[in-house]
Amino acid sequence: MRAMKDWYASRPHLFTKRPYDHPGYDSYVQPNSGSQANQAVFLALLQPGDSIMGLSLAEGGHLTHGMHLNMSGKWFNVVSYGLNAAEEIDYEAMERSAHAHKPKLIIAGASAYAIKIDRERFAQVAKSIGAYLMVDMAHYSGLSAAGVYSNLTPYADVVTSTTHKSLRGPRGGIILTNNEEVAKKINSTVFPGMQGGPLMHVIAGKATAFHEALQPAFKSYQQQVLSNDDTLAKTLVERGLRIVSRRTESHLMLADLRGKGITGKAAELALGQAHITCNKNGIPNDPEKPMVISGIRLGTPAMTTRGFGQEQVRLTTHLIADVLVAPEDRGRIAAVREKVAELVAPSPVYGDTVLHPCFICRQLLSKNLFSIFNLVFLKGMVCKTRWLQVQSATLG
Ligand SMILES: Cc1ncc(COP(=O)(O)O)c(C=O)c1O
Question: I need a labelling partner for 64 at 20 to 30 A (CA). Which of 105, 135, 271, 383 fits?
Answer without folding.
Answer: 271
